[in-house]
Amino acid sequence: MSEFTLIRKNLLQKPLRFLLMYIVIAVAFLLFGLLQAVQGVMTASGSADQGERQIVSNRINFTQPLPYAYVERIAALQGARQATHTSWFGGYFQEPRNFLVSYAVDPQGYLPVYPELRMDARQREAFVRERRGLLVGHATAARFGWTVGQHVTLHSTIFSNRAGGHAWDFVVSAIYTNALEGGDEQAVFLHYDYFNTTRTFGTDKVGSIVVTPRAAGGGAALARAIDAAFANTPDETHTVSEQQFARAFLAQFGNVGLIVTIVVAAAFVTMLLVVGNTMMMNGRARSRDIGIFKSLGFPRAAVARVVVGEALLLAVTGALGGLLLARGIVAVLHASPNFAALAMTPAIWLAGLAAALALGLLTAAVPLRAALNLNVATALGRA
């Protein structure tokens, strides 16, 4: 009989105990896989800073607007290559639950700064030309069944229209895809001029300004120059890289990384206690079997391999079960436009398997010590 067969038979000697331990481990690794996938989305910032884009916002808080005149002043700085602006629209389609990530932009200035947004040349021209044009991400267009040329009405949760109410009429001029791996395809973009002249408050204000440096690696120096140019003014600025801005935005909802770490750590500590205690009880119950192995001449190394192998096999198979289940759930969610960025990356699999190996070794430590120090006469004397 091979050692692996012996390990397998030992694990399945009491099927109910094995099943319960397997479920505990699988659930913990299911939680691990899902939380790591969510954390990957939450901490992502568009995969990379395209052209070292810098985001200029109000020093008080990024929710406070900046004067529109700042755009030209920033573009005129010596180290700036391109500058554009965005303003949060806070839109939804038909009902509030159909929330949209929506921005008012200057198409001619915005699209060159974000070259990863790809669309048909004729659609691009139509969006730039049409004052009521709407640039829609592929995922959002698929979600609502929108097509180019279709008229849609969007409502704002923040702004009101001079014509009355909170609704604006648009025509879908272009549908874009994102060339970046995992890039966002859910946002919608409208003309700032149209929005600015029809809203009832906040006229000639912008939410933030996006600027790219003229020289490679000049992002940090440009950020300092921008903030220095507007120091001691009524609207001081705070300029950071695109990645830093994304992290600051997520920080408004709490420390996502810390929350995920605490939840995962709590699950693993609980799992370690349950499985470790069960493995110790299991080892104690089989002390007679180990005594027989020793009496038959099994070397200490073989006994160690059987004890450790049992713990590792349980931990790894349970982890794989949990991670595969997490992968299935992520795949289902990924098919929805709202969760298109979710993915079980190779890094998650590697981290999960490493954690499984660590779990197996930790839970095997006490039973292994007991097995190696077990006295044969004492073990065989036990009923």
TrEMBL record:
Organism of derivation: Pseudoduganella flava
Protein name: Putative ABC transport system permease protein
Keyword Cell membrane: yes
Lineage of origin: Bacteria, Pseudomonadati, Pseudomonadota, Betaproteobacteria, Burkholderiales
Record's subcellular location: Cell membrane
Record-level GO cellular component terms: plasma membrane
Domain ABC3 transporter permease C-terminal stretches: 262-375
Transmembrane residue ranges: 18-38, 256-281, 302-326, 346-366
Keywords on record: Cell membrane, Membrane, Transmembrane, Transmembrane helix
Membrane topology: Multi-pass membrane protein
InterPro entries, alphabetized: ABC-4/HrtB_transporter, ABC3_permease_C
Coarse class of the protein's main subcellular location: membrane
